[in-house]
Write a structure and sequence with these properties.
This protein is of the alpha/beta class. Helix content is about 20%, strand content about 15%. It starts with about 35 loop residues before the first helix and ends in an 11-residue tail after the last strand.
Length: about 190
């Protein structure tokens, strides 16, 4: 889970810098990274779209960069600034992008951002186009909160529970992927 605080202003670095091999989680920002199988699955999902946006999911964007695919990464963590497509972006003061995305994947800081703020941010990215594909990782125990807040987008539980590098897999830590589209049947979810 990539957990972020407020940033100052957008910036996009040159795309020629190397991709970071090791980046530690920043727990003060509620930044927790997905495990390798989760990163691979989510990267496959994102890669199937023409204009995806990774919002607070830098490891998925990094995996796609390693595969040779640049995607838009919106984040405040400057350690990922060398990834192609990185834009320093403030979740709390969202601004639209020049191009409408066809997918927004987000793993926001669960306790640092209110759902109303997250809704405003994603609504801004989608320019109010509620048919845009949206997929958000959120605590399973708070499923009604996210499906209620994102009802205009039609978000629902997908049955996919991501794994994390350093989050213990106990009931209180369970997170789920909520989306407004069907996942690839090869994921084996019902």
């Amino acid at each position: 889970m990539s957990r972020r605080r407020r940033s100052k202003q957008p910036s996009t670095p040159p795309a020629s810098a190397p991709i970071p091999d090791r980046v530690d989680e920043d727990h003060q920002r509620e930044q927790y990274f997905f495990d390798r199988p989760t990163v691979a699955r989510l990267a496959d999902m994102v890669d199937a779209h023409a204009r995806p946006v990774c919002l607070c999911v830098p490891m998925v964007a990094r995996e796609l960069a390693r595969r040779g695919r640049a995607v838009k990464l919106l984040d405040v963590d400057a350690r990922f600034a060398q990834l192609p497509g990185f834009t320093r972006w403030d979740l709390y003061r969202p601004s639209p992008l020049p191009e409408l995305p066809d997918l927004v994947l987000s793993d926001p800081p669960f306790t640092l951002v209110r759902l109303s703020q997250l809704f405003t941010a994603i609504h801004t990215l989608c320019r109010g186009e509620l048919r845009t594909r949206v997929a958000i990782v959120w605590p399973t125990a708070r499923a009604l909160d996210i499906t209620g807040t994102f009802a205009p987008f039609g978000l629902r539980a997908t049955g996919f529970e991501p794994g994390y590098v350093s989050v213990r897999p106990i009931e209180e830590n369970r997170a789920s992927l909520f989306a407004n589209f069907e996942l690839d049947p090869r994921w084996g979810l019902e």
